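Morning. Coffee machine broken again, so started the prediction first thing and wrote up yesterday's gels while waiting. Chain of 241 residues, entered below exactly as on the submission form.
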Amino acid sequence: MKISVGSFVLTAAALVSAHYTFPDFIMNGQPTSDWQYVRETANHYSNGPVTDVTNEALRCYELDYSATAPATSVATVQAGSTVGFQANGAIYHPGYLAVYMSPATPAANSPNAGTGNTWFKIWQKLPTVDGSTLTSDTTDSTFTFTIPKDLPSGPYLIRGEQIALHVASTFGGAQFAILKVPQFYIGCAQVNVTNGGSGTPGPLVSIPGVYTGNEPGILINIYDLPSGFVYQPPGPTVWSG
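Came back before lunch.
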């Protein structure tokens, strides 16, 4: 079958518009400038997702692993304050939202920050079970959460993640299979946390490493759920301080 150039361009444009990035950090109730405090991601033009849970891109999806972090500013936020992420459009696909944090050594803008077994989950939002279908609000463009009040002060990465589940019934892998597998949309903000406490965050995980891709909350057909289905969020439990 022959596909015209015009049809290809329209299809590509539709794919871009259906995908998204998280370029804006929300603090003091307002979104900041694009990529001001969020490490610019490799999909900043394409909006395409990460599909391989073993790939280093699952961590923060940096445009350049050595240059992006030091080129990004560091926000100062207080423990116990509400912050968030804003997408460059609606979070169009139904799925699961989660936020992880990692202490950042030696600083939040260090390329080596978060590369170990240092990540812990501080927030999540589960999709809704509606009969035999899994849904979520696909009109929202923001999500906000609270930095745990007992979190010790210091430099951190805050990693926002949405796992889009609209075509998640096949095990993920190569980027060319993005139309058939779970899709991960990611943004990492660089922050210094002040007025913190003396809590011990955990359980700790590495990213990549936190998911196998076979979890029931990742590998799923959201349009044909069994009776009595309960969504099982992937990854560690939430640490709320």
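The chain has one domain: 20-194. Going to sketch it on the whiteboard this afternoon.
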